[in-house]
């Protein structure tokens, strides 16, 4: 599960307060975000063709009641353009509407996942992916902090961890599920190796000391 945020205010956000409607871009094409990722045009075609609209939350709060619903979702030359309507009678939706009118809240963030075949690793930079397809678009949230570096992991499944067999697979897992950059993932792996080696060395030294002590006791008893 990954998040990517975008400032709808900077993307020609339109607001109709009377009808509680707002329109903006949940994602844009061709840009490189702070993780080095670039989403290509056409990446949302499969989720749009699926016909199921994502859920609307505020701040990715999946434990709360949705604050509204997304009415339209389409790709154009700029990105994924969406129109949403905030729920009448919802206190949280009223707060979000007031914040949108004031301009103090101006971000949209997608909650999505991709499969192995949906992207390619960039070869012209230290890290990052070229994303060709979004497999699942779970939700689009209104957010107060539209910055890519606020993306967070929401769930790590036990079966995903259990399936890791090699250091390379662990690096891929940290980058894909944990949203670590390639350099950060490699740095963490290197540190883990150092710690594990130190732990093994310490355990080996303790075991050797115990064996030596036992031999000394046996030698003393034989005198």
UniProtKB/TrEMBL annotation:
InterPro entries hit by this protein: Peptidase_S78_dom (IPR054613), Prohead_protease (IPR006433)
Domain Prohead serine protease, residue spans: 9-161
Alphabetized GO MF terms: peptidase activity
Any Pfam family hit: Peptidase_S78
Protein keywords: Hydrolase, Protease, Viral release from host cell
GO biological process, one term: proteolysis
Protein name (Swiss-Prot/TrEMBL): HK97 family phage prohead protease
Species annotation: Mesosutterella porci
Lineage: Bacteria, Pseudomonadati, Pseudomonadota, Betaproteobacteria, Burkholderiales
């Amino acid at each position: 599960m990954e998040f990517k945020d975008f400032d709808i205010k900077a993307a020609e956000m339109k607001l109709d307060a009377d009808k509680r409607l707002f329109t903006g871009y949940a994602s844009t094409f061709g840009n490189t975000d702070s993780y080095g990722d670039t989403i290509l045009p056409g990446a949302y075609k499969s989720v749009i063709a699926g016909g199921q609209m994502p859920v609307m939350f505020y701040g990715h709060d999946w434990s709360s009641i949705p604050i509204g619903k997304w009415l339209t979702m389409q790709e154009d030359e700029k990105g994924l353009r969406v129109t949403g309507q905030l729920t009448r009678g919802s206190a949280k939706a009223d707060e979000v509407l007031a914040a949108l009118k004031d301009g103090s809240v101006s971000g949209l963030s997608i909650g999505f996942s991709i499969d192995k075949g949906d992207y390619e690793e960039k070869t012209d930079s230290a890290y990052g992916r070229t994303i060709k397809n979004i497999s699942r678009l779970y939700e689009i949230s209104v957010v107060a902090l539209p910055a890519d570096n606020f993306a967070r992991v929401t769930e790590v499944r036990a079966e995903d961890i259990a399936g890791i067999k090699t250091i390379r697979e662990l690096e891929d897992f940290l980058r894909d599920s944990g949203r670590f950059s390639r350099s950060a993932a490699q740095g963490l792996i290197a540190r883990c190796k150092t710690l594990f080696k130190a732990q093994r060395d310490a355990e080996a030294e303790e075991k050797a000391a115990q064996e030596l002590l036992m031999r000394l006791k046996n030698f003393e008893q034989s005198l």
